[in-house]
Each structure stands twice: as C-alpha cells, then as structure tokens.
Amino acid sequence: MTSQLFLIVSAFGFCLLAILAFYPLSQRVGLVDIPKGRKQHQGAIPLIGGLSVFSGLAVSLAFFAPDALHPTYYLLLAGAIVILGAFDDYLDLSVKLRLAIQLSVGLGMVYALDLHLASLGNLFGFGEVTLGVLGIPVTLIAVIAAINAFNMTDGIDGLAGMLSLVSFVAIAGFMLLWGQPEQALLPMTLICALLPYLAFNLHLVPGKKIFMGDAGSMLIGLSVIWLLIIGTQSETSSFRPVTALWLIAIPLMDMVAIMLRRILKGQSPFQADREHLHHISLRLGLDPRESLTLITALACIFACIGVIGEYLMIPDVVMLLLFVMVFAGYIFLLQNIWRILSQIRRRMLRSPK
Ligand SMILES: CC(=O)N[C@H]1[C@@H](OP(=O)(O)OP(=O)(O)OC/C=C(\C)CC/C=C(/C)CC/C=C(/C)CC/C=C(\C)CC/C=C(/C)CC/C=C(/C)CC/C=C(/C)CC/C=C(\C)CC/C=C(\C)CC/C=C(\C)CCC=C(C)C)O[C@H](CO)[C@@H](O)[C@@H]1O
Ligand SMILES: O=c1ccn([C@@H]2O[C@H](COP(=O)(O)O)[C@@H](O)[C@H]2O)c(=O)[nH]1
C-alpha cells in the first residue's frame, strides 16, 4: 500500500522536478517550438512536456512499480517512442521512419509481453469475435492508430493532456472497480505525471509555458492503447473492447474523419493541416480555452456513454451501432459545418424580432 502511494505521488514530484530542470536546458539546446506556417502560437515554447512526463514516470516506476505492471518493458517501449518523438520535434522525421518505429514498438508489445487483441467481444450479436492470426496485424494497426490519433489532438493548449486524462480516469475507474486494482496503478501514475505538465501548459505557472511535443503525445497514445489492451484482453478484463472505442472517441473519430476528408480531396492522408476538430472550433469563433472546454466536455460525455453501457451491460452490438451513428453524425457535421452555420445565421436574420 505504501509503495503504491509512493508510486503515484512521486510521479507528480519527479515530473515537476524534470520540468524545472529541462526548462532552462531546452532554450540552450534549441528544443523549442517556433511559430511559423500552421504553428500560430506566440514565442519559442520549450518542447519538454513529453520528456519530463517520461522522466518522472521512469524514476517512479523504476523504484516503486510492482512487477505486475511490467515496468521494464513499458519503459523500454515507451522510451523508444519518446526518443522517436524527441527526434521528430527536432528534425521532422519522414512518415516512413515514424511508422516503422511505431510498428517495431507494437511488435515489442505483442512478442515480448503477449499484449495483443485476441477478442473483440460479442461485437455483432452472433457470439464472441475472436481474431485468431489476425489478432497481431489488428493490434499493430490499433497501436499505430492510437499513437497518431493522440498526436493529432496536440494542437491547442491543454487538449492532448485533457483528452488523455479523460481516457486514463475512465480506464483507472474500470480497473479499480471491476477486478484489475493492481493494473489501475499505471493509469493513476500517468494521471499524476500529467498534472504538473498541464499546469505549465495551461499557463497556471506564469511565464513558463511548455508544450509536450510529439514525444509526449505519442507517449500518451502508446500508454492509452497499452492500457486498453490490458483492460479488455486479460483474463481478468475490466471492460469490453467496444467500450474502448468510447473512451478514446474524440481522438479516434478526428483522426479517421480527417484521413477520409484528405483522401476525398485527393490529398495524402498524412498531410498535416489546420482542419482538425480543434482548428474548426477556433474558426467558429471560440477562443482556445473555450475550444478546450467544449472538446473535453464532449470527450467526457462519450466516456460516460461507455461507462453507462458497461454498467448496464448494454449489448456490444448496440454500443457499436451507436458509436457508428455518432461517428457518421460527426463526419456529416464537420463536412457541412459552414453551410449549416450560414443557414442558421440567415434564418436568424430573417426571423422577426
Ligand atoms: C498528419 C497530421 O494529421 N498531422 C497533424 C499533427 O501534426 P504533427 O506535426 O504532430 O504530426 P506530423 O504531421 O509531423 O505527422 C503525423 C504522423 C504521421 C504523418 C504518421 C502517420 C499518420 C497516421 C495518420 C497513421 C494512421 C495509420 C493507421 C494505421 C490508422 C488507420 C486507422 C484505421 C484503419 C482506423 C482504426 C480503427 C479501429 C476500429 C481500430 C481501433 C483502434 C483503437 C485505437 C482502439 C483499440 C482498442 C481496443 C481495445 C480495440 C477495440 C476495437 C473494436 C471493438 C473495434 C473493432 C472495429 C470494427 C470491427 C470495425 C467496425 C467499426 C466501425 C465501423 C467504427 C469505425 C469508426 C471509427 C474507428 C471512428 O497535429 C497537428 C496539430 O493538431 C495537426 O495540425 C496536423 O494536421
Ligand atoms: O499545447 C499546445 C500544443 C500545440 N500547440 C500548437 O499546435 C502546434 C502543433 O504542432 P505540431 O508540430 O503539428 O505537433 C504547435 O506548434 C502550436 O502552434 C499549442 O498551441 N499548444
């Protein structure tokens, strides 16, 4: 019990110390995000959030984590992703290299720890969908999807941090209450490590703003998919695979929707732009803080739908159909947002006062 408490509390402390130590260094080595093109923030911002969260986690897990969390494998694989992200923050690596390293990390999860998707639950109402040999490629796609989905949310202050907090809180809740209390330590530790980062990123510490960088957003994506697989695929699983979709609904829907929109426009699905949900929210006239609040609230609502579905044991097929309907609505809304808005404005102008 004491070491569990030390693990969680020390993650907060070590992450805070790492931020304070890395902040002056980042300026000296040039690990800063300079505004240009689609990067529209003010000033050179240190890209040390991800490195600090990882360093804090590494010390806490190395000292206090129980073996059940597989701290060595987690830190090795997460470390590889953080190094990849840090190099990408510096040098803008090629898509091929990024995907190759993400794939290798996925293979590490599958073969070193046997962490993979073997069952999708009773997804279509005809009995359990087991993946057999397809389990490995599907896991690798899910790992790459989760890493990049969270990476794409990191475009306004606080967003990647808050969306991951929503997922980690929900996962920790399921694990604590439904039979995986020891595994719940990892999401709880991640939550505590993220809090100091969020305080700096959201200007709660004046004059010391930081970003998490690709190192941080990819670390979060990997940690989320790691926990979703443990939470849904272990013998003592604490929630169903379909519920996982609701716990990461916003990053997942935003990534799939933007890739579809780019393909439909004849562009590469990997071409960066300012068309993500948070960018559209800014163009609608909300400021970054309002956009953060709106998108986080939506993520909370989707996570609550997942929790309610799990609590009431609503059949998987119903939860999947509902998710597909929400996703279709999301795509329709984003595709037609400007037409819908101008129609609303026209009606408001025409209607008598
Ligand atoms: C490029 C970009 O956008 N850039 C952003 C970014 O800029 P930044 O500078 O940071 O980054 P860069 O530009 O430098 O570069 C970014 C990175 C790259 C260029 C590299 C690659 C990028 C990618 C986009 C790779 C994506 C690759 C993939 C393999 C993803 C493909 C996706 C899919 C095929 C969808 C996968 C969906 C799944 C269903 C799998 C589930 C996935 C999970 C993660 C959940 C797993 C959990 C479980 C426990 C499993 C449960 C699973 C089930 C029960 C579901 C089973 C599903 C079915 C049977 C199918 C039926 C389901 C449906 C029909 C529902 C489907 C609906 C949905 C999935 C929604 O950031 C900047 C700042 O923001 C930005 O400006 C810039 O543009
Ligand atoms: O907390 C944050 C994180 C990011 N931003 C802005 O988004 C871009 C994202 O850069 P990528 O290289 O595409 O990841 C960053 O340059 C900032 O302009 C932010 O404002 N706050």
TrEMBL record:
Please provide, alphabetically and separated by semicolons, the GO molecular function terms listed in this UniProt record: transferase activity
Write out the pathway annotation from the protein's UniProt entry. Bacterial outer membrane biogenesis; LPS O-antigen biosynthesis
State its cofactor: Mg(2+); Mn(2+)
Residue ranges spanning the membrane: these are: 6-23, 44-65, 71-87, 99-118, 124-147, 159-178, 184-204, 211-231, 243-264, 292-314, 320-341
Q: In which compartments does the protein localize?
A: Cell inner membrane; Cell membrane
Catalyzed reactions per annotation? di-trans,octa-cis-undecaprenyl phosphate + UDP-N-acetyl-alpha-D-glucosamine = N-acetyl-alpha-D-glucosaminyl-di-trans,octa-cis-undecaprenyl diphosphate + UMP
Task: Recite the UniProt keywords alphabetically.
Answer: Cell inner membrane, Cell membrane, Glycosyltransferase, Lipopolysaccharide biosynthesis, Magnesium, Manganese, Membrane, Transferase, Transmembrane, Transmembrane helix
Membrane-related topology note: Multi-pass membrane protein
Principal location: membrane
State the EC number(s): 2.7.8.33
Q: Which family does it belong to?
A: Belongs to the glycosyltransferase 4 family. WecA subfamily.
Briefly, what is this protein's role?
Catalyzes the transfer of the GlcNAc-1-phosphate moiety from UDP-GlcNAc onto the carrier lipid undecaprenyl phosphate (C55-P), yielding GlcNAc-pyrophosphoryl-undecaprenyl (GlcNAc-PP-C55).
What is this protein identified as? Undecaprenyl-phosphate alpha-N-acetylglucosaminyl 1-phosphate transferase
Please name the source species: Alishewanella tabrizica
